[in-house]
Amino acid sequence: MIASVLPLIGRRLLASILILFVVSVLLFFVLHALPVDPAAMSLPPNATIAEIEAKRKEMGLDLPLPQQYLIWLSQVLHGDFGVSIHYRRSVVSLVAGTLPATVELAALSIIIAGVLGVAGGLVLFHVRGKREEPLIDFGSILLLSIPEFLWSLFFILIFGVALQWLPFTGRLDSDMRLPHGSGLLLADALFAGRPDIFWSALKHLILPCFALGLAFSPTIMRVLRSSLIDVYHEDYIHMARLRGLSERRILLHHALKNAFLPTLSLMGVQFGFLFGGTLLVEVIFSYPGLGNLMVDAVRNADLPIIQLVGLAYCIVVLIINTVVDSLYLMLNPKLRLR
Amino acid sequence: MSAGKMTRFLPKWLRSSRVVIGLVIVGVIGLCAIFAPLLAPHDPNDQSLTAIFLPPVWGEGGDPAYLLGTDSLGRDVLSRLIYGARLAMLVAVFASLGAMLIGATLAHIAGYFGGRIDAWIGRAVDVWMSFPPVVLSLILMVGIGVGVRNVILAIVLVDWTRFCRVLRSEVLVVSRKDYVAAARLLGFSHWRTITREIIPASLPLLITLVSLEMGIAVIVEAILSFVGLSVSSETPAWGQMIADARQYIYDSPWNLIFPILAIFTAVLGFNLLGDGLRRTLDVRVTETQRV
């Protein structure tokens, strides 16, 4: 089963690498259209024009853009993404330090979105044609109209400020130190045997994760509902009914399996959006991840960081898409034999 | 019964309660945007440092002159909300039309001609979709600089893919229909076939997508102005009001609630409109789903 899809997965992977290359070219050219001068920014404000010119030469900024890109590319292929203009630290270490936080946030959020989405989809399907349908359907549009950053602010107002149940800044209580390790706090705390850190990290994740999960679940709900409706027109459902199976069994054992495929491929696309959505949620919750790094870099016009963080977002999205596509191929027998 | 008779004369899409509610919401916000100078009780930038953080009129110490209270600089929240509608609606209308123009054109070319052109356009969409939209719009704003026009441009450049992907498959299906082949056999040019035979069939989906895109544009503009990458601080924007109020969340939670509600209402309006239009205009939705 796996062997038959391997070539397809390989082709997907190759396509992803090509996409990444094109993205890096686009990113480079967009960012170099910028009206800021990295040479002037990396020098003290009292630097003379001549000094700036010399720095420009040194940084290769006087070369034509395609040549600059090739130089950049060869450095990147050697693992050198440059040094942040603002923090004066290697960009790779900055991104590596923040990426796990964002991955942790996004992974928990997509799980929440998936659970809420499937549950909500089943509810939407269950009420079809009934009296409650318009009301519940309206509810799903209402949910669809609340983006993650509005959920974040709602949650901060209700659970953070008014009820004071949960913290809403950072990843840990301020008196705790980050344990060394993978950067995935929940896993690190478990390995280090520190339930206190685990608990604190979890509490800090609840509000941002639910904000993201709730924002991305309505689309999953609606797609699951419509694919369930499609599946119920198929003959094998009628056959199952004729065989006397209960409605619950037909739904959970026969229909859901097939209706889940479009939902899965949608979740792949959604994960891309969700991963981007973490950016703003991180800013709102002062959560030290990729998004906060990016927004800081944007405010400081810190090109090397913007470049690598942009690429990092793309790489994660491409990896997720490849994984989801491969899963889809493996789960869908119709596509398997070609 | 007279109401029932009345509705019979309305076009089908106006009989959907979703469309009507959506139109009312969007209409009210649109009117606020157009007539902001007449409706707003104060100048949105007038500061009154003796009256900062006033609660809404129903709160303790509320001032009837400031119905929804004042912000950290003593500016009237209601007036800023009304003026903020201008930016939101401006961006919603132009960004969604721009994205539609690019996306729909490419979708029709790809879906109608197929083959190599289709493959190339598909690849371009793949490249674009590998960027999370928020990240791409941030990078674009860094690249092209701030200002209303650039916000619109950034949203157009990010969101044309939404139109392209969805419409392409629709056009693909329509292009295979017999009546399209018949038109070609009658000697219609490609241009005429697309404009006379295909666009009328893809139009319902197009209108729906534009309506949904307007909601998305409102959100993206709010995000950009929240991060401080949208318009200068003299132009009132809902996202900017949120960013300001977040710093004083303990002093005045109301300042945060009102712009949140404004964004939510606007997006809800566009989504209701889009969803209602989809149900009434799409021939494939069954009668029972159309209620």
Would you report the number of β strands of chain B? 0
- Beta percentage of chain B is under 5%
Rg of chain B to the nearest angstrom?
22 Å
Over the alpha carbons, how many angstroms does the gyration radius of chain A reach? 24 Å
Written as H for each helix and E for each strand, in order along the chain, the element string of chain A is HHHHHHHHHHHHHH
Total E-strand runs of chain A:
0
Structural class of chain A: mainly alpha
Structural class of chain B: mainly alpha
Distance between the termini of chain B: 19 Å
The quaternary structure here is: heterodimer
The largest interface is: A-B, 53 and 44 residues
User: Roughly what percent helix of chain A?
Assistant: over 70%
**Model regions low in confidence, pLDDT < 50 over at least 5 residues of chain A:** none
Give the overall form of chain A. Answer: globular
Q: Total helix count of chain A? A: 14
Taking the sheet with the most strands of chain B, its summary is: none
The ordered H/E elements of chain B are: HHHHHHHHHHH
Mean residue pLDDT of chain B:
84
How does this structure look, described?
The complex is a heterodimer of chains A (338) and B (291). Chain A is mainly α and 338 residues long. In chain A, 76% of the residues lie in helices and 0% in strands. Chain A contains 14 helices and no strands. The mean pLDDT of chain A is 83. With 291 residues, chain B is mostly helical. Residues 286-291 of chain B have low confidence and may be disordered. The interface between A and B is large, with 53 and 44 residues.
Short description:
The complex is a heterodimer of chains A (338) and B (291). Chain A is 76% helix and 0% strand. Chain A is built from 14 helices and no strands.
